């Protein structure tokens, strides 16, 4: 079962996860971080910037993004390439040559998944993958029905996800219909998964992912197949967890030598 850590606020969660990443980078400067986009990881990125200001050198860290929209013009501010550059690459001083985002341009889209898998393989995979969860239960953009063995490929976003993400665009029409996303099989290869969720709107999907049946209908439940998963949530997102008391009890009694 995943380790579930309930912290008071998203800021606390961001600082907690960033401190763990910063410590790992101090031990291994070439650490590879799997980056998510959307609102959820932003407190982690903010706290990583604070860690950099406090002296941790992230400049040799590598990064792989989970997904990208298909067909947005190069440089579109809401393309995940732009978001990762803005939130992670530039502020942390990463080498852009070590920051990978799936190629969502229409030209060559048929091979985008394969090329990304090859880049991941050649690099040696991801040490820690940050994950958010969609209200549909998606991880990356693996909407319900995605195979647990799936690799990076083009997927069609659900209308619900497009509506949820319309807040980043001027209108719903502008939200792409397709994306290139790491598959659930790709995500499960990362050596450590850190799933974050904040607010009551995520409570149902989070509880289903952490405690529900393992099913392709709930892509988030794929985390139950991974040997090392840390779930970091606020009380709103934790509000439908059946075993919340046990998770708190386990945290209160956690052996000091154990990391996350
Ligand atoms: C983003 C991603 C998605 C988001 C999810 C939650 O790269 O892959 O799975 O993590 O849609 O989005 P937010 O965080 O905006 O609620």
Which architecture would the CATH scheme give at its second level? 3-Layer(aba) Sandwich
Helical segment tally? Answer: 8
pLDDT under 50 segments (min length 5)?
none
Which range does the strand content fall in? 15-25%
Largest sheet: 7 strands, parallel
Class computed from helices, strands and strand pairing: alpha/beta
Query: How many discrete domains?
Result: 1
CATH topology: Rossmann fold
Integer-rounded radius of gyration:
17 Å
Order of helices and strands: EHEHEEHEHEEHEHEHEH
Small molecules bound in the structure, each named once: fructose -6-phosphate
Oligomeric grouping of the chains:
single chain
Mean pLDDT: 97
Which term fits the overall shape? globular
CATH class group: Alpha Beta
Give me the side-by-side strand order of the main sheet.
Answer: 1-10-9-6-2-3-5
Query: What is the β-strand count?
Result: 10
Summarize the amount of helix as a percent range: 25-40%
Task: Describe how the helices and strands are arranged.
Elements: E1 3-6, H1 10-27, E2 32-35, H2 42-53, E3 62-65, E4 67-69, H3 80-92, E5 99-100, H4 112-123, E6 128-131, E7 153-156, H5 159-165, E8 178-181, H6 184-187, E9 193-197, H7 203-211, E10 229-233, H8 244-252
Parallel strand pairs: 1-10, 2-3, 2-6, 3-5, 6-9, 9-10
Antiparallel strand pairs: 4-8, 7-8
Helix pairs in contact: 1-2, 2-3
């Amino acid at each position: 079962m995943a380790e579930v850590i309930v912290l008071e606020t998203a800021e606390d969660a961001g600082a907690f996860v960033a401190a763990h990443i910063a410590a790992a980078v101090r031990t291994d400067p070439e650490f590879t971080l799997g980056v998510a986009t959307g609102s959820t990881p932003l407190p982690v990125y903010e706290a990583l910037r604070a860690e950099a200001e406090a002296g941790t050198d992230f400049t040799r860290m590598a990064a792989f993004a989970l997904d990208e929209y298909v067909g947005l013009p190069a440089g579109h501010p809401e393309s995940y390439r732009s978001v990762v550059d803005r939130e992670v690459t530039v502020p942390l001083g990463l080498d852009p040559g070590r920051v990978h985002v799936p190629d969502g341009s229409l030209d060559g889209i048929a091979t985008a998944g394969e090329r990304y898998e090859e880049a991941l393989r050649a690099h040696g995979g991801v040490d820690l993958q940050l994950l958010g969860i969609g209200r549909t239960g998606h991880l990356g953009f693996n909407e319900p029905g995605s195979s647990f063995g799936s690799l990076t490929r083009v997927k069609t976003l659900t209308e619900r996800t497009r509506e949820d993400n319309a807040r980043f665009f001027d209108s719903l029409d502008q939200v792409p219909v397709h994306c290139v996303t790491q598959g659930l099989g790709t995500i499960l290869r990362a050596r450590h998964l850190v799933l974050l969720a904040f607010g009551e709107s995520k409570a149902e999907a989070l509880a289903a992912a952490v405690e529900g049946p393992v099913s392709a209908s709930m892509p988030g439940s794929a985390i139950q197949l991974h040997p090392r998963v840390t779930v970091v949530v606020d009380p709103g997102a934790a509000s439908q967890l059946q075993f919340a008391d046990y998770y708190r009890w386990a945290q209160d009694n956690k052996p000091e030598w154990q990391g996350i």
